[in-house]
Specification:
Elements: H1 16-29, H2 33-38, H3 42-57, H4 64-78, H5 81-93, H6 98-102, H7 114-126, H8 137-144, H9 149-171
Helix pairs in contact: 4-5, 4-7, 4-9, 7-9
Length: about 190
């Protein structure tokens, strides 16, 4: 369980649409603190859940499959347990096999198709634990073989928002961390 200092809105005090979001998050992760805390700023919750996830992540110009690969790669590296509990099923629903999920730490594994490899390599540059991440000509060439510049920008924006939200979620303690999480406070 998380140990946030921010006020939590109990489920029975949430408006009905947020109760549904709470129920889904609780069903997937057993940890609905994110919704309970962000319920105090419904416009922010709408930005994350509706505008970002609804319009860009599950919409946008890039196929959801690639955004699911990127999101899962980020959450696995960042060690967000709450995220992993929802991102693995999301990846599976997007057609990513368990073998591909298990091989996300190796972009060169033959289980990955070339566009997947490019997305994994891009995500490796975007993880919070890589302060020197950059787009070099080799990565750009690999990405541009499968994605337009607009699609590369969309993938990068998706990862930037997810990475930023992960950092915020760690700072305000609204998600559970894996034991290996590099952002877990020393005990």
């Amino acid at each position: 369980m998380t140990d946030t200092l921010l006020h939590r809105t109990p489920r029975d005090e949430l408006p009905e649409p947020l109760r549904q979001v709470w129920d889904r998050l609780n069903e997937l992760t057993g940890e609905p603190t994110f919704v309970e805390v962000f319920a105090s700023a419904p416009e922010l919750l709408d930005f994350v859940m509706g505008q970002f996830y609804g319009n860009i992540f599950f919409g946008g110009r890039v196929a959801e499959r690639y955004k699911q690969i990127a999101r899962l790669k980020l959450s696995l590296v960042h060690g967000c347990r709450t995220c992993n509990l929802q991102n693995v099923p999301g990846a599976r629903e997007a057609g990513i096999s368990q073998a591909q999920i298990d091989a996300l730490d190796d972009a060169d594994d033959p289980v990955h198709a070339p566009p997947d490899r490019a997305v994994i390599r891009f995500a490796e540059q975007m993880v919070l634990t890589n302060p020197d991440g950059r787009m070099d000509s080799e990565l750009y060439g690999e990405l541009s073989a499968h994605f337009s510049d607009a699609e590369i920008c969309e993938l990068g924006t998706v990862m930037a928002v997810i990475g930023g939200m992960a950092k915020l979620s760690f700072v305000i303690d609204v998600v559970e961390k894996e034991t290996y999480c590099p952002f877990a406070a020393a005990s």
